[in-house]
């Protein structure tokens, strides 16, 4: 098969389309003929040499894919050759084939084409596990989503609205805020002009900035609030005002999805299929796709992501 390999960490040009050995099908694995994958911010960190795949994962980038099952290994439950699926991966999505534990495989939701489906698993699993399983966002509560126009943000806005929350986003331009409002957000804050911590009080905050936003996030939490940090685009370290945290009886969580064991990913994936997919089937939640790029041109897709112009997901079509 062909895959995108990274011989040496560096700029987008480090991503090279090469012939590589086919994946081996292990016990409990599903082999997928990949129709598409999608770009995540984490793939850029992997390309730069800052985010190695966890042990046992394929060396190629790509945390999600869609495609058709070509083979199943022993002990696989619920999938058979010919099934149209999408999957949460530990790596290896930028390839023509990938082997993945069956627990991380999902049906393609109704009304979503096979290529579009590639952009759903990572964002759906991240938002479901953090906002709903960890932070337990409830109907009527306010969710603050930093980077509302990101791949993660566009799904978080739609899902939280569908579950009856008030949603506030931050974004870096009026155009991006307008798109978030179209997706259902109640309010948008242009972080280049305004300080979000002065403007919003939230029950739950989904944060991708890390250290830089920690003081503002704690300030913006309501009593009993839950801050979930999933990214460190503003650095790994920041000052935590424990006095404010204790007084508010608030909590700070940090998580990553990629390194979780298969069983934990399986619980998240089942939660997504049971709770998120029905909303996608019904058209309440739609994949937000910014561009479709041929997979062999993954370098171009990374340039688009790093330009920061995109809203939603950039797909890599096999
Ligand atoms: N921990 C996990 O398991 C996990 C899983 C998936 C993703 N993530 C993280 O989630 C984040 C989003 O991922 P993605 O793939 O969706 O990336 P993406 O589409 O490239 O989004 C990055 C976003 O960062 C926003 N941003 C930059 N500076 C900002 C600031 N000062 N305030 C608010 N937003 C700012 C950008 O918004 P503007 O363009 O509007 O400036 C952009 O929308 C990344 O940090 C990624 O590492 C974590």
UniProtKB/TrEMBL annotation:
Q: Which domain of life is it from?
A: Bacteria
* Domain called Enoyl reductase (ER): residue spans: 10-316
| Stored InterPro entries | ADH-like_C, ADH-like_N, ER, GroES-like_sf, NAD(P)-bd_dom_sf, Quinone_OxRdtase_PIG3
Hey, what's the signal peptide range on this chain? none
What SUPFAM superfamilies does this protein's entry cite? Answer: GroES-like, NAD(P)-binding Rossmann-fold domains
- Record's keyword terms, sorted: NADP, Oxidoreductase
For this protein, the parts annotated as crossing the membrane are: none
Q: Does the keyword NADP apply?
A: yes
Q: Gene3D superfamilies annotated for this entry?
A: Medium-chain alcohol dehydrogenases, catalytic domain, NAD(P)-binding Rossmann-like Domain
Q: CDD domains per the record?
A: p53_inducible_oxidoreductase
**UniProt xrefs under Pfam families:** ADH_N (PF08240), ADH_zinc_N (PF00107)
| Alphabetical list of NCBIfam families matching this protein | quinone_pig3
Q: Which PANTHER family match?
A: OS02G0805600 PROTEIN (PTHR48106:SF8), QUINONE OXIDOREDUCTASE PIG3-RELATED (PTHR48106)
Protein name per Swiss-Prot or TrEMBL: NAD(P)H-quinone oxidoreductase
- Species whose genome carries this gene: Streptosporangium fragile
């Amino acid at each position: 098969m062909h895959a995108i390999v990274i011989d040496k960490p560096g700029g987008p040009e480090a991503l090279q389309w090469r012939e590589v050995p086919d994946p081996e099908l292990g016990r409990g694995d599903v082999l997928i003929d990949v129709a598409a994958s999608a770009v995540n911010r984490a793939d850029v960190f992997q390309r730069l040499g800052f985010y190695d795949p966890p042990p046992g994962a394929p060396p190629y980038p790509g945390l999600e894919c869609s495609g058709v099952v070509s083979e199943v290994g022993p002990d696989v439950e619920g999938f058979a050759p010919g099934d149209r699926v999408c999957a949460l991966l530990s790596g290896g999505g930028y390839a023509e084939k990938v082997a993945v534990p069956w627990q991380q495989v999902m049906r393609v939701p109704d009304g979503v084409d096979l290529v579009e489906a590639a952009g759903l698993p990572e964002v759906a699993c991240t938002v479901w596990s953090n906002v709903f399983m960890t932070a337990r966002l409830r109907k009527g509560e306010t969710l603050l989503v930093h980077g509302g126009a990101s791949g993660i943000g566009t799904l978080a806005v739609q899902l939280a609205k569908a579950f009856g929350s008030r949603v506030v986003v931050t974004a870096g331009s009026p155009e991006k805020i307008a798109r978030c409002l179209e997706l259902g957000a109640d309010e948008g804050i242009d972080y280049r002009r305004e300080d979000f911590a002065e403007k919003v009080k939230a029950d739950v905050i989904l944060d991708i900035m890390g250290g830089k936003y920690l003081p503002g996030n704690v300030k913006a939490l309501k009593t009993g609030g839950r801050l979930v940090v999933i990214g460190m685009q503003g650095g790994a370290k920041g000052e935590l005002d424990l006095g404010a945290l204790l007084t508010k009886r608030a909590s700070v969580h940090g998580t990553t999805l990629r390194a979780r064991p298969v069983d934990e990913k399986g619980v998240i994936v089942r939660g997504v299929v049971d709770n998120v997919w029905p909303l996608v089937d019904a058209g309440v939640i739609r994949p937000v796709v910014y561009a479709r790029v041929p997979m062999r041109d993954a370098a171009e897709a990374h340039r688009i992501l790093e330009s920061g112009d995109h809203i939603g997901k950039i797909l890599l079509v096999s």
